[in-house]
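<backbone_tokenisation>
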Amino acid sequence: MPTRPEPAFGTAAALDAGTPANALRPRIRVAAIIVQDDSILLVRHVKDGKSYWLLPGGGLDCGESLAEGLARELLEETNLEIRVGDLVIVNDSINPDGTRHVVNLCFTAEIVSGAMQCGTDHRLEEVRFVPVSEIRDLTFYPDIREELIPAIEQGFPRRAAYLGNLWRDH
């Protein structure tokens, strides 16, 4: 007897099949690219016994602009206040089985104030500036190094236009 295929992730059929509603939505993650003296600010997470590096940032809350969310996340993770710059890298991270989808939005940023220290998230192990020349050797998620390194070296020649919150009451 042929088996019925699983409903596609993110579809009404998946919801009817008992998939939690929040699992059907992509997660929006904002991240900061902060470069100083040929080094980039990174955070190291440990999850399920695995250590990896990523750009500081995190999930956007409903009602927050991208810039507000990024500023909040940087303060939470690094104790740094930032000025958000240009949107320079966008990518999807989609689990092959369709159970997880993250949209990553990476902005340039500069530090305005604060004393860098590691935040309290249980996965967060370290925050520090890492020489750009060393990031090729790191376990890095999402793995945007092939795009990130030349973009840093070239001063981010490709930029998107982030227009902010354009909601207007009529």
User: Anything to note?
Assistant: Residues 1-15 have pLDDT under 50 and may be disordered. The chain has one domain: 26-153. The chain is about 15% helix and 35% strand. The CA atoms of residues 9 and 98 lie 5 Å apart.
